[in-house]
Design brief:
single chain; 121 residues; mainly alpha
Length: 121
């Protein structure tokens, strides 16, 4: 079942504490990473994460962890990125593939040589 949650009425740390105590049996998930990152950024801005004390920051991390489904360390990485840049942005990594070792012509020549030697390889 898909449910849309409106969390804009959660405005204080006490409300976060009550939400977390009442939502212990509920499992949340956000449909896409982009939505998740946007929600986390908005939550950090709304609660002014940088100006909170250590206890309040821990509760906010618990909230983000519970709603997003991310691990504690991933939430901390995202918060660290937010504190450093003021934004949470997905890192798009493009992997460099291996260069093709043999061209089609090389493969054809190797097949010809293999055929001349009676298919030894």
């Amino acid at each position: 079942m898909h449910t849309i949650m409106n969390d804009t009425r959660i405005e204080t740390i006490e409300q976060v504490r009550q939400f977390l105590s009442g939502a212990s049996l509920v499992e949340f998930s956000i449909s896409s990473k982009n939505e998740s990152y946007k929600w986390i950024e908005q939550t950090l801005i709304r609660f002014r994460y940088g100006s909170r004390n250590k206890t309040d920051k821990g509760l906010l991390l618990d909230l983000i962890e519970k709603v997003s489904g991310y691990s504690r360390i991933q939430v901390k990485r995202l918060v660290k990125q937010y504190l450093a840049t003021g934004r949470i942005k997905r890192r798009q990594c493009t992997r460099q593939g291996f260069a093709q070792k043999y061209t089609r012509e090389d493969i054809r020549l190797l097949a010809d040589i293999d055929e001349l030697h009676g298919g030894l390889s």
